[in-house]
Design brief:
By secondary structure, this protein is mostly helical. It has 2 domains: 38 residues; 98 residues, Cytochrome Bc1 Complex, Chain D, domain 2. It is built from 5 helices and no strands. The N and C termini lie far apart (70 Å). The N terminus is likely disordered.
Length: 138
């Protein structure tokens, strides 16, 4: 056990040293070309956060809403009184659902269950809903 732990420690130390050596080396012209072509890290992080929230929002809609609502960009809702999610912005901005989701939606079609979401889940669901809205004539 001690040998295994010592070996892992040595491996970790060697990996750390290799990373530090790479960080301290002078970048080649090829590396600089790739770096200048890449978008700023902040943009990558923002896009990753957005994409992650879209995925979480879709998952929430699949698990909590799809029994009644059409949750994607096409298709009919399984429940006749449940509006397809892609059409929610016909009557109001989807962002207006934020407060209702925080307090527990109790309106909608007659069979709609009440549920409460966390702030992160609310934001993720709103972002997903906004991502699938149909264009509406002005």
């Amino acid at each position: 056990m001690l040998l295994r732990r010592t070996g892992l420690l040595a491996l970790g130390l060697a990996t750390g040293l290799a990373i530090l050596a790479a960080c301290n080396s002078t970048p080649s012209a090829e590396t600089e070309d790739v770096a200048s072509a890449a978008p700023p890290i902040e943009e990558d992080a923002e896009q990753f956060a957005y994409d992650s929230k879209v995925k979480v929002g879709k998952l929430i809609s699949e698990t909590r809403c799809s029994a009644c609502h059409a949750i994607g960009p096409t298709g009919n809702s399984p429940h006749q009184d449940a509006k397809p999610f892609r059409q929610l912005s016909e009557n109001y901005p989807v962002r207006n659902l934020e407060e209702a989701l925080a307090e527990g939606i109790v309106v909608g079609h007659p069979d709609m269950p009440m549920f409460v979401l966390s702030p992160y889940e609310i934001d993720a669901l709103i972002i997903y809903l906004e991502s699938i809205q149909e264009p509406h004539p002005a």
